[in-house]
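Assemble and predict.
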Amino acid sequence: MSEHLLTTKLFRPTQHALLVPRPHLFARLDKGKHGKLILVSAPAGFGKTTLLSTWAEQVDFPVAWLSLDEMDNAPAPFLTYLVAALQTIDPGIGESLLPALQSPQPPAPRTVLPRLITNLAGYPEMLLVLDDYHLITEKAVHDILNDLIQHMPPSLHLVLATRVDPPLPLPRLRGRQQLTELRTADLRFSLEEADQLLNQVKALQISDRHVAALTLRTEGWITGLQMAVLSMHNRADVHQFIESFTGSNRYILDYLLEEVLNQQPQEIRDFLLRTSILTKLCSGLCTAVTGISNSQHMLEELERANLFLIPLDDHRGWFRYHHLFADLLRQRLMQCNADAIPALHMRASRWYAANGELGAAIEHAIAAEAFDDVIQLLKKYIQFIWEYGDQTRLSKWLAALPDDIIKEHPVILAHHAFALCYAGQHQEAEAQLQAAGTNSEPFHSMASTVRSFYSLYSGDISAATSFAEEALTGLPADQHMWRALALSIQGDIYAYSGRFYDCEDIWERALRQAETAGCIFFALWVTAKLVIARKRLGKLREAANTFEKQSKRAKESGYSQVSFPGALYAVMSDVLLEWNQTDDAIHYAEMGLSLSESQNYAAGIAWSSLALIPASFAQRGISGVEEAIRQTEKQLQEHKLPKWTFNWLSSWKARVAIAQGRLADAECILHERGIILDGDFGFPKEVEYLALVRLLIAKRQLDDAWVLLARLQAQLESMGWVDKLVQAKLLQALILQEEGNDEDSLDILKGILPLAEREGYLCVFLNEGPPMAKLLYKAMQVGIAPQWMNKLLAAFPLVEPLQTPQALLIKPLSPREMDVLAQIATGASNQEIAIALHIALGTVKNHLKNIYAKLDVHSRTQALNKARSLGLISISNSP
Amino acid sequence: MSGRYQIVIKGHLDRNWSDWFDGLRVSYDEQDNTVLSGLISDQPALYGILDRLRDMNLTLITVMRIGPDTDPFEIKEGKT
């Protein structure tokens, strides 16, 4: 079950009753539609909705309508319905925003609004009507509207209908002529309009004197006049009625309602009173509440008789009463049959529960003060809190329950605490746990889970560890979601401690639990973690499989890509990059970044930004990587990113400095981070230590590099950090090659080959540049996995990896140059070539110079590689 | 922070509206305006009542907080 968007809120109420046309008001609205805001501010019953609805029907802009209610009093629901309303004009408006807004961790308004505003800029002019804005009382929502008005795209024009002036900068808007107001005085019926209503529309033949008296008595209050009209329906003594009515001081609606009700047959009277407790009506619900079987007929009758029934859709499925009318009926019900009210609410509650609207079912049960039923419904509701964590509603409902009843069901409080935690309200979450006042199971284990969650979040690893252990010991086996959560947190703790084998195992278990619980969103979160774990363990293919399988499952369950956690794409980007699928890697990293930003998830932003660094390097070399590093630093300023961001960032900055020959800078960068020769390891410093190894190699301090590398390898091995181990081993092999020890160097290469080949490691070789190509070529020459070597070599770029790629102008080699090239392929020296081709040594050197220029290379090895990849010489041309 | 309040609204509201306004006592002054009086538990409750009056389009004349020493039943009983 999901709480689908209530499309009734987006339906523009249409009136079929004969209406008094108000062209002068239409004229003002027409003028006002070019400004930023039209405000229609008047008490209930002055025809605001009718006016705006009839105007919207014929205005020449497309109109989006949103009928607000109390549930819209929080940023996420408000923005959700705002976007949904705009989408009735064009489904493309704010398309990517909705799923994120409806997720358990909705994005902050300040990230959503700018995107919506930018999105709207491309559309033609439109109107957005927000009806019943007085129901919005939360500052956070007023702030959103303020921001929207301040940065309003020229295409959007806002209309607010309200009973109370909203706390918006009205004076400023007035001053700048961007505000059009229709107030009570404007909306009152004039004598002429009252006359029209009474005599033309309703043909009651009321004298001028009486029209004036009625208008005076009602003060032009439209609802009052309409009720008066109803009271005079089928009445013989209209004159008498008017005299009595205008002579009385009694509250006019009270007076008139009595008249109206007295005229109705008993059946209708009962129907009206009983259904007054409902916020909206359909025939099934009405039958359940009133016991009348022909409810549909009844509803249509009421609408025809103008008894203040407003349709909420265009197929007469749902209706609601005019708010005032409903209030009056409710008051009357309270007065004449208060004892019956709880039972009516209970019937409504049961109908809603049976028809899948848990929220409404709970609200009616609370109104009935049937607390046991509320508890049962809440127990069902909290199952969905993992998917649609609408914590504000839950908070409101719990506040309505007596303390002693809640205390008997602490599990509900545990769920509430989790929802609060997830929304970042850690202190309130702890307060909820305290309020339960118990340590019984399973509450206690659930509480431990919540506590371990926010401890981890605030960096208190030891507290997180002990709470997680408590939780896992005590949680019953059938509490799948809670177990999934606790296992996932435990996995995070292992990750922080650099125990990657344990991570994989426990996150796998967490994923299974999440799947059993049917919680797709959480399953995707855990999938991201599992993919990282597998990548680190060197299981690239399995990592990719996990991603594919879980993505497919989620999509089949109706989850769209834009609701996937951004982090999932970021970690997949890393895997793709290992396979040198650079373009895909960049695409995934960018998707991960944009999703994480809209989901307001810091770790996702960090992961995506960091993934862009090596991916940019692979795609565009040094300039690409410098840009990506700059972007990451910018992200660090704008968001509070996790601490480990700095480790990876500094390791890359050092690497770039080394590649550019700025060894002193690299030394500085690492030194500032405390990365020194005899320094201590500890996840994730190892990435920085790898950079230190590179620095030492660049400084030709090969002995120091060797010793550090040995220590580092032992550490990486114990952690299970296989993909960094591969890098370390390659560095080791290169050191040996540098020292002239080809044999040992090739041995090391041989050692990692099975893994590298099986998992498709590519990029890690390419990143080491020409020295690695040299080593691979040697390996191929001595017959070590020649096909694999060939494949690796063919992937090497045609230019120095650490230089900006230039456009390659391949001029064909002359036949003589081809001869020289063939000679080089046999390993001949320049002298030998001169002899073999009967040319002077200087000529050989000239030819070489031209060959290098045409192939855009700088060495024999490169020339050969390039020639091979271009097919100029066959692979078998090796001695 | 409870308090005794007296709210005067224009026009005559029947006694049976007392329940709708949290059980406040309904009485009338010389102009047959309605006087709602009684204990209101806190400010939110007071604003809740004022909102309900607003929703009924009833015109507020005065809202007064009466000290605990004063007996609201001594003030201007008026016609019943």
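Confidence is low (pLDDT under 50) at residues 799-810 of chain A.
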